[in-house]
Amino acid sequence: MNNERQNQYLILPENGNRKDTKLAVEYGEEQIAEYVANGYVIVNQADFNKLIGNAGGEYLIADDGSVYPKPAPTDAELLEASKPAKIAELKVERDSREVEPIEYDGNLYDYDSKARDRIAAAIIALDVLGPKASIVWTTADNQDIQVTADDLRAVVAMVAQRSNALHIAYRKAKDKVEAATTVAEVEAVTLNL
Questions:
Q1: What torsion do the CA atoms of 46, 62, 56, 48 make, to the nearest 10 degrees?
Q2: Structure pTM?
Q3: Is 189 exposed, middle or buried (0-12, 13-18, 19+ CB in 10 A)?
Q4: Considering only CA atoms, which of 3, 89, 15, 18 is closest in space to residue 50?
Q5: How crowded is residue 9: how many other Cβ atoms within 10 Å of its Cβ?
Q6: What is the pLDDT of residues 31-65, one digit of tens each?
Q7: What totals of helices (H) and strands (E) does the chain contain, helices first?
């Protein structure tokens, strides 16, 4: 036991973080000199406490053993992080707008996955019943109306048009995000129809 090295640590820095840590008190001076020759640095208790649990955290360690606060991200790093986040946000908005109720012939029709299944089943049933067949349909705002297979096909066609417009708007917005040169430009991008 090396009592002169109490509260000291041998740390091997890598990319500002601790790759390996050893208690200096457990090694003789000759062994410590060998570790230092191999890239380890000696850190005191206070600096070590700053580093504990901070992988990617608030403090970094230099190759010379000095511990320093992690610098604020650069504009380029902020821009790089903002782009995929904005693209994901735009995609979520596009996807949620695709399943919003849609208006056809003065009525609102639900178009979530359950409604899509019901519409598809109703079209098949109405086709079997004949070209003039109709059923009572409950709209998104809870109105009961008579619909034909052609009415429901028209709802599906309107949804397809809306979906296409949303995907075109998403691609244009994504292109703007990818071309942006500042975080403010990224944040200003919206899904415009």
A1: -20
A2: 0.66
A3: buried
A4: 18
A5: 21
A6: 999 999 999 988 887 787 777 765 556 777 777 77
A7: 6, 9
